[in-house]
Write a structure and sequence with these properties.
Helix content is 26%, strand content 25%. The protein has 111 residues and is α/β, with parallel strands linked by helices. Helix 3 links the parallel strand 4 and strand 5. The longest helix is centred in the middle third of the chain and has 12 residues. The protein is globular.
Length: 111
């Protein structure tokens, strides 16, 4: 489970009842059924606000530019541009979000 913590991002917003901050998360996953399952899970997770979801980087990068995202769950094996290409674009941002790589592939290269 992803927990909201100051170590993940200094830009967390929105106080909860216990004083902790909400972690704003975006999902990039091209398999709709899995993305929907993960979205449902995160919507019900304490301390997390699901800001958005997509199967590519266009909406993600726009939301990052507006400062709306603290963390990204990123599929490594996207059919269009690939997760590594998106990761590089995120790393070049002035305030990059935390990234959790998601992959069903277990190869030396992906690890």
């Amino acid at each position: 489970m992803i927990e909201a913590s100051a170590e993940l991002s200094p830009r967390q917003v929105g106080p909860r009842a216990n004083g902790a901050k909400e972690l704003r998360v975006w999902i990039v996953e091209d398999h709709v059924i899995f993305r929907d399952l993960l979205s449902d899970y995160l919507r019900n997770a304490e301390g997390i606000t699901l800001v958005g979801q997509s199967d590519d980087e266009i909406a993600l990068l726009a939301a990052c530019a507006r400062g709306e995202i603290d963390a990204v769950v990123l599929d490594l094996n996207l059919t269009q541009n690939g997760g590594l290409a998106i990761l590089e674009k995120l790393r070049r941002l002035s305030h990059p979000p935390a990234v959790m790589i998601l992959s069903a592939t277990v190869t030396e290269h992906s690890i």
